[in-house]
Amino acid sequence: MPLLHLRMITPADRTDEIVALVEQSVGTTHLAVLTGAARDPRGDVVLCDVAREAADELLERLRATGLPEWGAISAENVGLTLSRSADRAERDAPGEGADAIVWESLVEETHEESTLTVTFLAFLTVATMLAACGVMIDSAILIVGAMAVGPEFGPLAGLCTAMVRRAPRLAWRSLIALLVGFPAAMLLTGGFSVLMDALGLFDEARFLGDRPQTAFIWQPDAFSFVVAFLAGIAGILSLTSAKSGALIGVAISVTTVPAAANAAVALSYGNWSETRGSAVQLALNLLGIIAAGTLTLLAQKWSWARQRRAV
């Protein structure tokens, strides 16, 4: 059963207001008040569970009271609940939990995943270097592995979320991660390619030879955009429904990291044709994911608003 557990800290003089708001909200259950239990910030602790499909509306109402300014709100997914009261709350809530979007959670998750950090750069660089090895030896297995390691879907989803929620800070954070992350990873991969060539592990003749398993990376066509668009839809759906397995499928269906790797290796050998082709492939994949992700979020927002109005 998809439930969220909410923990709120509120000053004692506002506790009754928050409790009344929770009691009046559909889809809530397991309400508890711990008087004077909070020390920082000082006040009472209010606990409750809420059906996922009712969580976004409740969080909006709690935010409107100013609770995040003078108290705190924490939310976490409940893995297992055995409760008749929870069953009733789930039935009373409008729609289906799998279709609901908890916008506060989505914004927070994409905000974290879209931040330019050393870890993000390390994952993106390692993924690009793995893809460079896959390109050199024409290994589809290594290409798939590099796709799975790449962390680029985080800022792409952050950009989609920012456009729908009109969150400029999240948009800038996501753009910085992409505009700094990819060039940095490609630059380091270019140096890696030169080093591997000096060690005799990479070879220009092999790179320029036939590579039937990986030639698609630098030969973009209409399917490049179509696949990226479909992957963008699946990726956003996986985030909003918390289906991590689907997100892994998205990671191995687009060629952002392999295209960046092929461009870096081609550039290190002065192969401008493959560099341009790989750059176009990268751009098509990024644009396809962003377009599909944004449209998917808009469609989900419209659909869910319609369901709530129908109740």
UniProtKB/TrEMBL annotation:
InterPro entries: DUF389 (IPR005240)
Record's keyword annotation contains S-adenosyl-L-methionine: no
One Pfam family here: DUF389
Stretches that traverse the bilayer: 116-137, 176-202, 222-239, 246-267, 279-299
Keyword presence, DNA-binding: no
UniProt keyword annotations, A-Z: Membrane, Transmembrane, Transmembrane helix
Protein name as annotated: DUF389 domain-containing protein
Species assigned in the record: Streptomyces stramineus
